[in-house]
């Protein structure tokens, strides 16, 4: 199949590209276009082509949604902290780019699978203790608003028969490799990753803040799954809350202590940042993902296991 | 106050203009700009100015949201049947125009009250028997999608402090005066209005189809109320399901028979239109509007009373 990934220079996009090119990929890849604002990492694989492209530029969408493209994984985004700081850029990337890609897909003769990577950050405000598949989306961040509007369009373009689209809402991904980003949930990886690497980390939220988490490995498996499942079984609403696990920051720290020891865990310092704490508190920490489970999406077993896998991956890089 | 109304040539927009200019208006009007694609009806009132304007044209929003404007009632819309037939026009008017008006409002030095008139048509798909204030919005019409995306933006522009905005979701308005429009719920007025005027009417849905209804008079009162209430009591979600009453088409017909007699009621013929019936069935017929009631929005007492008022209004015109 002929695949494209936007946001391919990002941490998840890069892992997704690797997973698509792996021998055990559930999708047989004939060609893979990797797109991002900066040139994504090139692979020594003849199927791969990379493209540095400003997705907000006129005509950019048509360079990605060519007539032979069969699946688009649209991951490119301006993350939460960045979208809150730059409202216009946030809306341009998180909404207008999605719309342009959907329009490009609509113009084609044949329907393309369009996997939109959304976020639990669409939720916010007065939420029930456990978010259900049909809990209302009342976002309290600009990031969540751009993603929520995009979800509505993805479902609508699918309903109108313009694309074979669906959207998956990712939990907070932890433990991310790489470096900190401008997501307000960046600390959820930082407080594990940095201490393991021997560095100090600052946690901007309280120990009792609960988070809805998923490991990078599991998230990538779920995004791939979204590329292959029959989306007709999702009608009338092609937006799915992905599985995850709930943990407080305190529980994450205990898991770190258990797996990596007291010395490593002591490298985390708690210095509250009111703005970050407020935005993180607006994201829901617990979900009932009956629908996603039924559709074959998966979750991690426990957070200590997630940390163990992260440590193994880090060791491989050395 | 300096007020503007878009969609002012429409049935509700025209009534709203009258209500704003009336002596008992809850808003003291210093000047009133009435805007629509066709020139709204001129009044012999020095406070009124009318403007025929294509709202999708570049710069149109700036002609409406001038620096002295204090309240904007944004009613202009491409209705359900029309938006389903013309996807691009629907999105352009129901979403892009709202966005342009919000952007124009954001550029001003002082915050403007922005009342966005939305619809229960944002709901659709797998709905609970009674829609609650926090029921998820999963629209199954292009009209609902444009309105739902606009609601997200109105709330966001308010949250960011760009406007003093709120959105009110109107029930199906019945009995509308005037003539049929391209809303798929147009029949909900037609099956009452036309027989009373001595004309025949066709009902495209079954007798047991339930509808969420509100009279024009009550809807206008609620829109005016949205112009004056303190919107800060709405945070974190400035979108309100307005009160209404639930009736089946059969119950509406019985009320017509009761108020206007058998001969009048016999002028309605049932000829099912599958496309209309499907879209109407996707709209929710019953709501719990605790929040709106608490905020001082009102409902009609019963549908027979609504018909009686309609007959009185028709008689006055003669």
TrEMBL record, chains A, B:
CDD domains: Gne_like_SDR_e. The keyword NADP applies. The keyword NADP applies. Pfam families: Epimerase. One of its GO terms (molecular function) is oxidoreductase activity. Keywords: Carbohydrate metabolism, NADP. Residues 3-200 form the NAD-dependent epimerase/dehydratase domain. InterPro entries: DenD, Epimerase_deHydtase, NAD(P)-bd_dom_sf. NCBIfam families: ErythonDh. This is NAD-dependent epimerase/dehydratase domain-containing protein. It comes from Papilio machaon.
